[in-house]
Structures are given as structure tokens and as C-alpha cells.
């Protein structure tokens, strides 16, 4: 379920000093929860400021949601009948939302799903499979994620309306992969193991297939590529000689550490926009990074005494709006940060 996403991306996280520019400040919008619930999380935000995520009810069942500016959480229902769990992971420019839902409560199986104007489509699995999750969607409606197939471990997939679900395979000698992000050129990123048991971030394209991303020398390879923008810049996390930290890969496949917040021992990046701005978390604090500012604690960029502790940032759009989750009044709520 939600835990699958955490395998490589929540443990990935160098203390580097970056020149600081004048910091952008934000005002914050609380997206709330479903009736009676105390938990919500914003996973992605599109250029119109629409957010996809999930929230829980009083009985702790979770549904996906779509949120639009000035509105309330729109319930994205799970696969019917009988299911009561769904998560929205990604949203594109026209408001199509990708995620996953349980479809058989008896064994808690999950299928990748697509919500279009609130109507759900089950994307199924790779041939012979029983489990799939959708993690990313581009503006053409192409979806990536992962699915098992027959007796095999999950593989990354690419889905579109005309061809259905395509197996993207693994790195040579590997048996497991996940697709986590896709850009408008159809490039997919994620992570896969290899014949030596190392976990590499990868980028897949129709022309080149699946390619391992660069790793720092003299480290154990433990990486995840979590997001890719339309320029081919990739954000995620990697092992470095001094620990696990947020990473940025350039289109020519060189790797850069984005550092960590002061006093924090790790970081990982979850999203990148076409301006090269990156968000994620470091030591359970949400961060923003850009080439001019370096890594900044988002908690220092919202109004003081707001009552919020922003713990993770999962999405950023081209206008600089950010979504994620934070603690407010003893609850965990989704938020949107809008530049002042």
C-alpha cells in the first residue's frame, strides 16, 4: 500500500554549504480532511494549483482526493464494490488523477487507477499480475507505476489509453523495479536493482530503454529517482560517501548532492519543476532547494506562530506552489504554500 513508495525514497537523504539568496516567503492554506478524520496528505500539484492526495475519515478508511483553489476536498472513491481504500498520487495539467485502490478487501489487493472528472478507471495489471500502483502521470495522460506479473516481482510500467500497460523491465540482471515519475516527453524515472543487488535510480525512454543513473564513487549503490521535469533534470535520493542525501541528476547523467538542512543527517527529494526547483524532506522537515538559494527549511518561510510544522513537501508546480503534509493542532494535514 502506501508503504511500497517508502522503500527507497524515505531512507535516502551531504552537508554542503550553498550560497543563499533572498528567500521567497509563502502563505499557507490548510486543505483539511474528510469528515471526522485527522489525517490528509498532498502528493502532487498541477499548474492550476489543483492538488491530489489522500485523506482519512473518522473510521480511518482512506480515499483519494482532488482539491481545487478555494474549495474543499473532492472525494475520489475507490474501486467498487466493497473497497474503502484509495490514494491519489499524481495529477496532470487537465486534472486527470492517477493513484491506486484496493479492489478485494479480503486480500487487500491493489490496482492502479485513473480518475477523470471524478470517474474511476481500473488500469489493471501486467499479464498474470494481481497488484499494481500508479505513481505518476503526464499531460498526455500517460501513467507510470509498478505491477507484478504472474510469479514475477513488480516491474515498472508505462500505461496509455491505446496500448494499455507496458512492462519497462529492470536493469540488467535485476528482478524488481518501480516507476515513480514521468515527464511530458514520456521519460520515466524510478528505481531498480541489478545483478549485484545494488539499487539504482533509472531513467527510461522509448529510444534508449532503461538506463542506470550515475552513482557517486566509493559508495554502496542505494538510489531512487523520484521525479523528472521536461528538461530531463531528475530529483531523488542517493547514497553519498558521507550518508544518504537528496540528489539531482542532470540530463547528461551527472549527479549532484543537494545537501541537508542544518543539524539534520539526511534528506531526499520528491519533486522538481521546470525551473529546476526541488522539494522534499530533511530530518522530517520540509525543504525547498534551488540553485540560487540552496536548501531552505520551509518552516522558516511561512508566517511565524502559524502553528504549523511542515514535515514533508511532495509536489511543486511551475508557479512555485508547493504541497505536502504538516502537523497542525495535533493533526496531520495537507497544505498548499503559495508564494507571497
Number of strands: 28
How does the helix and strand content classify structurally? mainly beta
Largest sheet: 4 strands, antiparallel
SSE sequence, one letter per element: HEEEEEEEEEEEEEEEEEEEEEEEEEEEE
Assign an overall shape.
globular
| Residue windows where pLDDT falls under 50 for at least 5 positions | 1-20
**Cα radius of gyration in angstroms:** 19 Å
Mean pLDDT: 92
Strand line-up in the sheet with most strands = 1-28-27-26
The fraction of residues assigned to DSSP E strands is over 45%
Tally of contiguous helical segments: 1
Helical proportion, percent range? under 10%
N- to C-terminal distance: 36 Å
List the helices and strands and how they pair.
Blueprint: H1 2-9, E1 26-32, E2 40-45, E3 51-56, E4 62-67, E5 74-76, E6 86-91, E7 97-104, E8 109-116, E9 119-124, E10 132-137, E11 143-149, E12 152-160, E13 164-169, E14 177-182, E15 188-193, E16 199-205, E17 209-212, E18 223-228, E19 234-240, E20 243-249, E21 255-259, E22 268-272, E23 278-282, E24 285-290, E25 294-297, E26 308-316, E27 322-328, E28 331-339
Antiparallel strand pairs: 1-28, 2-3, 3-4, 4-5, 6-7, 7-8, 8-9, 10-11, 11-12, 12-13, 14-15, 15-16, 16-17, 18-19, 19-20, 20-21, 22-23, 23-24, 24-25, 26-27, 27-28
Short précis:
The chain is built from one helix and 28 strands.
